[in-house]
Design a protein that fits this description.
- The chain is of the alpha+beta class.
- The chain has helices at about 1-15, 20-25, 30-35, 45-60, 65-80, 85-140, 145-215, 235-270, 285-310, 325-335, 355-375, 405-415, 420-425, 430-445, 470-475; strands at about 225-230, 230, 325, 340-345, 350, 380-385, 395-400, 445-450, 455-465.
- A five-stranded mixed sheet has the order 4-6-7-9-8. The chain has a two-stranded antiparallel ribbon with strand order 1-2.
- The longest helix is centred in the middle third of the chain and has 69 residues, at about 145-215.
- The chain is extended, with a radius of gyration of 30 Å.
């Protein structure tokens, strides 16, 4: 504490300000500032940033990284000894921030690998088409094209090898993302527990100081910590700030998704505008490009709807009439980027009520997005359904992905069964599953994730008879298999 205070006083002298001027600059009242400069109280860690800004305001230059690091080290050394509960919270926040950054970097790498895989697939298709053209030209000739065919075959095989290597890299990176996500969840839980311990400690100090103050010994310089729900907790202002941070993270994440989709849409439009090269192996398929644009627009719309849902403002698109369940599932698959990997199996011949159609499409689409995103591109994702004994329907979505740990499944299923308020669910990194939980709650649908025999994850979606048109609900009847 002495080392920290000595260095802090050097700053105070160097700034050449009165306590009143420093109070205004740092946003700390004079009494508290005096206690900080005398080593009787440690400020919040944000004090360091405000001090750096004060130096910049006076000198016109920022604190050098070396000095800032030294000051930070002294502060945390003092905090570790004199306020260990607060020190634990700060360290865990740093750990959580680092985990978030590692996950963002890993997710960016996954996106880049997926883009490379798509490019490899397109190149492979072009090479295969060119090889077929060469083969057809070689029919009936004396073998003059054999060497050209051999070169084309070697190039195709090289692309195949690179594609398989990238598939392996993508699978490994997806495992890394899953492991990092579990680390982040563990750090977040440890931080939550540490914050509770800190608030309990602050409450204990306040009570002790209140007792001493009543006897005239001294007065506690801080106001009593606010209580939420009858238990020691962060102040109302801190809780509101935490909610805003979670919402900010959620909207930033969703905006990032939307921007990525718009970028793909622009790239497709640019590609459509290019002329077909003379003598090229193949040109752009206009119909395929238009279909891709339509798919991108659909996904952008769903991303915008998810923003409204997590903001608590979702109205949803109402379907004018009931729709067959198999058509609802095909519509959901059409909203998935890797829809060509989704197989729709047998489902009961029932019609979903208009009020549920849009929500079910979005819910299944999010589950399919997760299934395709967290499984190797060479595997399939299957969807099937069967009747339930209570006149409902159970849908099953199976992937051969990287799977989830038992702890992660318990945590996710807890949030799916009892979704937190929009502000809290929005702060979670698995935003797709946060959306699923909110949609399931709105439409009274039960969703659960389970491990499957293929090493991946199965999503079970249970709809009761209220989700179906009256005629088909009666047709299901009780006693189904």
């Amino acid at each position: 504490m002495r080392e920290w205070v000595v260095e802090l006083r050097r700053f105070y002298v160097g700034l050449d300000m009165t306590l009143s001027q420093l109070e205004e600059t740092l946003g700390v009242d004079v009494t508290t500032l005096s206690r900080i400069l005398n080593g009787k109280r440690l400020p919040e860690v944000e004090f360091l940033s405000r001090l750096s800004e004060a130096v910049r305001g006076v000198t016109g230059a920022p604190v050098t990284p070396e000095v800032a690091q030294m000051l930070r080290r002294l502060y945390f050394n003092a905090c570790q000894v004199h306020d260990p509960h607060r020190y634990e919270v700060y360290q865990l926040k740093e750990l959580l921030k680092a985990a978030e950054e590692r996950i963002s970097e890993a997710e960016l790498t996954v996106m880049e690998l997926r883009a490379q895989l798509r490019a490899e697939q397109d190149l492979r298709a072009q090479l295969e088409s060119g090889l077929n053209q060469l083969a057809s030209r070689a029919v009936g000739r004396d073998g003059g094209l054999e060497r050209e065919i051999e070169r084309a075959t070697q190039e195709r095989d090289r692309v195949d090898r690179e594609y398989l290597q990238k598939v392996r890299s993508l699978a490994a990176m997806m495992h890394d993302v899953a492991a990092l996500e579990e680390d982040r969840e563990a750090a977040a839980e440890r931080l939550r527990q540490a914050e509770v311990r800190l608030e309990e400690e602050l409450e204990r100090r306040w009570l002790e100081a209140s007792d001493e103050g009543a006897g005239g010994a001294r007065r506690w310089p801080f106001r009593r910590p606010a209580r939420l729900g009858g238990h020691p907790a962060v102040s109302v202002a801190s809780a509101a700030e935490a909610d805003m941070q979670q919402l900010h993270a959620a909207f930033a994440n969703l905006s990032y998704r939307t921007n990525a989709l718009v970028a793909q849409q622009l790239a497709t439009l640019i590609e459509m505008g290019k002329p077909v090269p003379e003598g090229g192996l193949s040109g752009p398929d206009s119909r395929a490009d238009v279909y891709r644009l339509e798919s991108l627009a659909t996904r952008i719309r769903r991303s915008s709807e998810n923003v409204l849902l997590l903001a608590g403002e979702d109205q949803g698109r109402l379907w004018p009439k009931p729709a067959p369940l198999d058509e609802v599932l095909r519509a959901a698959a059409a909203e998935v980027e890797q829809q060509d990997r989704v197989d729709i199996g047998a489902v009961p011949d029932v019609r979903v009520t208009g009020r549920v159609v849009n929500g079910l499409i979005r819910l299944v689409a999010e589950l399919l997005c997760n299934a395709t995103a967290f499984s190797v591109p060479t595997t399939r994702v299957t969807v099937a359904g069967r009747r339930m004994a209570d006149a409902g329907v159970r849908l099953e979505i199976h992937d051969e992905g990287i799977g989830l740990s038992a702890d992660a499944l318990v945590a996710i299923n807890g949030r799916l069964a009892d979704p937190p308020p929009p502000s809290q669910s929005a702060g979670h990194r698995r935003l797709g599953l946060a959306v699923v939980g909110r949609l399931a709650a709105v439409h009274e649908i039960r969703v659960r994730l389970e491990p499957n025999a293929m090493g991946g994850t199965s999503a079970l979606v249970v709809l009761d008879h209220r989700a179906f048109a009256k005629d088909t609900a009666r047709a299901l009847g009780p006693g189904g298999s």
